[in-house]
Amino acid sequence: MAWTGDPNNPVPNIGNVKGDLSQEIAQQSSNLSEKKTVVNRAYQTRRDTDNQKDNTVSILDIDTAIMKQLEKFQMTVTDEGNQIKVPFYFASPEKWKSIQKDGVIRDYNGKMILPAVVLERTSSEKDEQMMMFNRYINYPVMRQHSEKNRYTKFSILIGQNAPVNEVYDIIMPKHMVFTYHFILWTEYIEQMNSLVEKFSFNTDDYWGDLRGLRFRTKIQSISHAVELQVDTDRLVKSEFDLIVNGYILPDVMDKLAGKQMTAQKFFTPKKLIIGQETVMTDFNPVAPLPENTEKWRSQDYPNLQKDVPIIPPPTVQGNPLNTSGSILQ
Amino acid sequence: MSLLGRFFSPRDLKLIASLNAQLSGDILQTEVFIYKICPEQTVINIYGESSPQNGKMFWPGVECTCLIDRADIDTTYDQFGPDRNQTVVFKFREDNLKTVNLYPEVGDIVEFNKRYHEIDNVVQEQFLGGQPDKSLSIIVNTHYSRLSKLSLVNRQV
Question: What is the ipTM of this complex?
Answer without folding.
Answer: 0.82
